[in-house]
Amino acid sequence: MKNNNNEIHKLDPEDAQKALLKIQEYLRNQTPNNEINKQNVINDLTIENNLNNFINDLHPADIAFILESLPKDKRQKIWSIVNEDYKADIIIEVENWVRKSLVEIMEHDNLVSIISKLDADELAYIAQDLPADAISEVQKGLNEEERLKFIEALGYPEESVGAIMDFEMVKVREDITLEVVLRYLRRLQELPDHTDQIFVVDRQDKMQGVLPLTTILVREPETEVKSVMSSDFLTLNPLDSDIDAAGAFERYDLVSAPVIDDSGRLVGRVTIADVVDVIQENSQVQELSRAGLQEEDMFSPLSTAIMNRAPWLLVNLFTASISSFIASRFEDTVSKLVILAFLMSIVAGIGGNSGNQTMTMVIRALATGHITERDLWQLVKREILVASLVGSCGSIVAAIFAWAMSKSIMIALVMMGAIICNVIIGTIIGVLVPILRARFKKDPAIGSSVLLTFATDSLGFLIFLGLATIFLI
After folding, report:
1. pTM over 0.85
2. Under 8 Å CB-to-CB from 221, ≥6 apart: which residues?
3. Residue 235 CA from chain centroid, whole number
4. Where in the cell is it found (predicted)?
5. What is the three-class DSSP state of 260?
6. Tens-digit pLDDT profile for residues 404-437
7. Alpha helices, DSSP H only, in 141-259?
8. Residues 266 and 171: beta-carbon distance below 8 Å
């Protein structure tokens, strides 16, 4: 992309942050509605023109980032001054919740004009965020081939390879020479993005092999495709998990991969750009899920935010109440040894930290496919061993601290035993919760930290105060 003075715009990750700060300053300098006069109108027009020029000099990806970083009213204002030529790229780039807020302020004809510029696979990708009448009208303008691709893409479930695959690719036959391939490529206006290989198919579009671009460049033009194509290549099925596809790209250092159906027919391809989007989205979902949250507009109304966050907070309140109830059952013990009230939070905290480390590793391993539920008991035994060793070392330090505060060897020993037990409990919970959720086809990350905290707090208090009651009272 170029800026207004025809200089090349150098992409820099910090550009979007700097641009966001500048736009926020522009918006702050605009006159409030109740202070309008002639001079203010002139000032506002100047700011508007400057803002217009500044916004449309940015890369569409930077504009998408800015839209995601603004409250809804300001986001919609910026959207209204974005160049129409950029809007198709931006509407694909932004998060779902931002796209919905932009679509709701667009007139029907304007929306149809923008989304009609999208490819069939891109249109299918955002179809759930668009009005049905707009999709229907755009679909009428597609040719037969594009319409079939659009319908096919819509038919694949979310989080599948079919939902992210690209229909733009270069195909050739195996019985032609590299010179013919080169002539064919030169007739194209441009190659599809991330084209590192050409797919070799027969007359029924069944995959025969792949032809790397580097091979075309270094081999003699008279060479036939079938003699230099590679028959050792990775293929994906449209119903494969997109996360599994991302793992394959990482494992084999792929830039693109063909997608073939059950009959071996080439139906599309997946590129590294698609995979990066999947990895980023999956990472964001996992981070939110662990706290029991769903995808949310950071600037959404209070009612929406409350409905999103309240359920798991109420669960957390309930579990914390149970922990407090357990602690209250040992009121006599704590009243006789007040020092226990200061030490029991250490027991709970160390158990929770140990469990959180284990849980993070297990969730990541499940996401990458490195472990399955068959590994459950082996994994539990290993983590218990690790937790016992780590807990023992930590418990010695905690026991020394407890002795320094209480001058009591028995309190130090109780502290030591409680920490070892709670670390092991936290580790077991850290393994079991995500694996069991995965077994029942649930997101292993959702609410995991809440459940872990409940277990380590409640059982930590019970073990520590229970041991204190037995050995110290």
Report:
1. no
2. 177, 178, 179, 182
3. 24
4. Cell membrane; Membrane
5. strand
6. 999 999 999 999 999 999 999 999 999 888 888 8
7. 144-154, 161-164, 178-187, 213-218, 225-228, 242-252
8. yes
